[in-house]
Amino acid sequence: MTTTALPTARPIPGTGPVDTSPIALTPAAGADLDPIWQAVIVETRTRGNDIHLPISLAYAERLCNAFPEADRLLVRVSIQLHDTGWGRVDESRILSEGFTGDWRKAAIRYEHEKQGCIIAREVLPPLGYDEQFVEQVCAIIDGHDTRPEAYTLEDALVRDADRLWRFDHAGIALASGWFGMDPAIYTDRLEAEIIPELITQPAIAMATTDLDRSRALLKTAVIR
Ligand SMILES: [Fe+2]
Ligand SMILES: [Fe+2]
Q1: Is residue 14 part of a domain?
Q2: Does a structural domain hold residue 150?
Q3: Fewest CB within 10 angstroms: 86, 131, 134, 212, which?
């Protein structure tokens, strides 16, 4: 299968079912990606990747259900590996440069994308993934944070899944600390800044439902 052309409508309406239930109810299914997980265990121990990546994979699978025309394997493997590059950059610089100021343009952001591609090219071929597939994965990983535009539908679904995990209470618990924010301020930021960045309508539906649920759970209206 090849990549799917990116529709021009914004947000992109889904063509399949949209599940907005708590993400813990639908963990990523199947064991076909387990050999990849096992190959990147070391890289998942940095920057909360062992929380971020599996939760984002579960969201990515929901997005693939909402867009059955997308190449499901390409989306799943790309989201699984997209941030592994954090495991090979200077850890002390991750929070000092990667999450402050104009963090999207910080040099360390480009480095984690580049390292993620190196890891994909190391890990995937021995597991039987062909060169064309590996290069499609790298095309998504390269620039996933720093390139303003998504190139394909698969690229767009990875970008949305990369953001959606933040709306679950586990994502809020972890990522609010990276930005030095309390949960109330952080969830306000999710609403004001991250929801407008979402590319697809199903992702917006999941994000807004999760945000309401997380705010109620964490009592952010009171504890602020
Ligand atoms: Fe990233
Ligand atoms: Fe990410």
Answers
A1: no
A2: yes
A3: 131
Give distance in angstroms: CA of 155 to centre of ligand 1.
13
- Rounded to the nearest angstrom, the distance between the alpha carbon of 52 and the centre of ligand 2 is 7
The domain total for the chain is: 1
Residue 185 counted as domain residue: yes
Ligand nearest the Cα of residue 49 is 2
CA 141 to ligand 1 centroid distance, Å = 8
**Average pLDDT of the chain to the nearest whole number:** 95
97: CATH: 1.10.3210.10
pLDDT digits (tens, 9 = 90+) for 158-194: 999 999 999 999 999 999 999 999 999 999 999 999 9
pLDDT at 1 over 70: no
Q: Model pTM? A: 0.96
- Residue 132, number of CB atoms within 10 A of its CB: 9
Compute the distance from residue 82 Cα to the ligand 2 centre, in Å. Answer: 6
Does residue 99 fall inside a structural domain? yes
Distance, in Å, from the CA atom of 150 to the CA atom of 140, rounded to the nearest integer, reads 8
**Boundaries of domain holding 164:** 32-218
Residues 134 and 125: beta-carbon distance below 8 Å: yes
Calculate how far, in angstroms, residue 163's C-alpha sits from the geometric centre of ligand 2. Answer: 7
Ligand number with the minimum distance to the CA of 52: 2
The whole-angstrom separation of Cα 207 and Cα 165 is 9
